[in-house]
């Protein structure tokens, strides 16, 4: 058996799960007819787009089992939390929310509660659930998501907590039913896992090693999405730049991007996340040549100090990062750049932090995702010592936010008076008369419009800008 065959879950196993889905569907249909009550499920997602994409698969399986979706836990027959292990806050939130379900479960004993996702891949978390959260009916991990129907079937019939966790380097699973959020933009995973072991990060421990989907499977999923009317595809992976290294016929990410760009009818392509150490000149050139690839790049730099980057095991220097950014700006002048930054990594001094500010000043990112370092159990950084206090970290964090807010506003001001193409996503959450969408560069644009514009690419003239969004009016020539 080849290495690829070993990590690819055979179709027979997926078909077994589909049989269980059908069985649950029959039972649910029978119950619905008997009681006149619908079956409802709540799926709550924490964390990144990969988790969102996994939740779309959970919803796909649940839809095929006859469930409808609700956000009201009180009316649910089934509640699933798809958890994230990347930050301590998200973990604490999950424990708090699961604890709060105890009373609801006491009132509705037939209601099932499931926990899945990255947190469940950690032994200490599962131990804690078994000990303190006995009202949880099922626990499954990232590697066993495809076996959710089997887990649910058991949980429906057994009184104990059904646990299905695998410690493995991970699999590739194709053909799981999917129920996507929205009908204009879709996420498509191109690879799973990570080999980088940045010293602060839990992902390689909970998502396994890098494994790339076959390009044919990716292309056929995207063709299907385009035929259903999706206009924008985001290619997902922990480190998309190392796509293809494990394929039998090697193909790199730039080649994949070119192939996807040629799919008939595709309008916009984005991708995330990229690792600076793996971004190649070929990729930058490909981005500039492919007309459907959006002018946007998310390239996490995490810290500006070379000493801290070394402690983080990031394998590039500040100088190398800035060199890449210059190449990208030269090749794609309209590019919007975003990044992740960690403030207060163990060992970071106030002087090191000045290097972070220096990178932000030089690059002028469109926006930043900023975090104060939070230790993750089982990672090397957990044992590293701080040299500055939490108060100093918070003051540095505020300095960074203040600097970035000014830059974000300045970047947005460049849009004033310009006409931009917006993919309209729907009505604004805060104003039911205002539509909202994004430019190719990922900027949020709000404007007055009507239902007929949703899902379309519309030209908008920008007449007002804020730090986080733009607003404007529809350009008459659209019609
Ligand atoms: S590249 Fe680093 S930060 Fe990103 S998922 Fe892998 S280990 Fe985590």
Give the termini separation.
Answer: 58 Å
Largest sheet: 6 strands, parallel
| Rg (C-alpha, Å) | 23 Å
Q: How confident is the prediction overall: mean pLDDT?
A: 95
Number of continuous helical runs: 14
Uncertain residue ranges: none
Instruction: Report the β-strand fraction as a percent range.
Output: 15-25%
The overall strand count is: 19
Q: Provide the number of structural domains.
A: 4
Structural class: alpha/beta
At CATH level 2, the architecture of the largest domain is: 3-Layer(aba) Sandwich
What is the H level of CATH, i.e. the homologous superfamily of the largest domain?
Answer: Methylthiotransferase, N-terminal domain
The hetero compounds bound to this protein are:
iron/sulfur cluster
Looking at the structure, the CATH topology of the largest domain is Rossmann fold
Shape: globular
> What is the helical fraction, as a range of percent?
25-40%
Strand order of the largest sheet: 2-1-3-4-5-6
